[in-house]
């Protein structure tokens, strides 16, 4: 976005707000969904994030890049969620059988075996990402899925670039270890874009 567009956002211009929403809703929802793993929670948290962003626009400096600012707000909201009692309560709900969005039932429709294998591997990868500690998962998702630079991620999570690079490397190593059982040839998993 240009400085003029970002200034229009800060000034709450209707067209600018609509363009912002269109540009950021889907990526933010997907980011939050990857972080919490449940669609109903991701929907609620995404709505909370957009409300917070809307309230914060008057403090936004249009000279700054918008994407890291937005993802900082989203990351902080997800952190708050994990720390809240709501997380503890939703964990209890899940123990009672509420696994919406987490179940990975095999596809019983006829089709090639590689399609089923692909779905199972996708489920295993999703589960491995969800199992990462929050700090590693945040760094991994912001880098791998959202395409943010290490400098941008460092600003979002409040660490220096070296620490963020180390977290990303640790996340990749934990994912390789977690997914090793899916690599019968022992060739190791490669993540495109990994340093």
- What class would the helix/strand composition place it in? mainly alpha
| CATH homologous group name of the largest domain | RNA polymerase sigma factor, region 2, helix turn helix motif
Total helical segments: 9
Helix content: 55-70%
The count of DSSP E runs of length 2 or more, i.e. the number of strands, is: 0
* Computed Rg: 19 Å
The outline comes out as globular
CATH class of the largest domain: Mainly Alpha
Please write the string of helix (H) and strand (E) elements: HHHHHHHHH
Strand content: under 5%
CATH topology (level 3) name of the largest domain: Rna Polymerase Sigma Factor, Chain: A
Number of domains: 2
Sheet with the most strands? none
Mean of pLDDT: 77
């Amino acid at each position: 976005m240009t400085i003029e567009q970002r200034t229009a956002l800060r000034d709450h211009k209707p067209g600018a707000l609509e363009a912002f929403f269109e540009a950021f809703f889907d990526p933010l929802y997907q980011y939050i969904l990857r972080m919490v793993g449940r669609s109903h929670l991701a929907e609620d948290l995404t709505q909370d994030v957009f409300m917070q962003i809307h309230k914060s626009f008057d403090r936004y400096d249009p000279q700054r890049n918008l994407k890291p600012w937005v993802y900082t707000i989203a990351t902080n909201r997800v952190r708050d969620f994990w720390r809240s009692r709501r997380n503890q309560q939703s964990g209890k709900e899940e123990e009672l059988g509420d696994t919406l969005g987490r179940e990975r039932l095999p596809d019983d429709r006829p089709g090639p075996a590689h399609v089923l294998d692909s779905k199972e591997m996708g489920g295993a990868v999703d589960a491995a990402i969800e199992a990462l500690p929050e700090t590693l998962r945040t760094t991994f998702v912001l880098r791998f899925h959202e395409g943010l630079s290490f400098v941008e991620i460092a600003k979002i999570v409040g660490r220096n670039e070296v620490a963020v690079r180390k977290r990303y490397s640790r996340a990749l190593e934990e994912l390789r270890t977690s997914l090793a059982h899916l690599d019968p040839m022992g060739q190791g998993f490669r993540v495109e874009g990994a340093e």
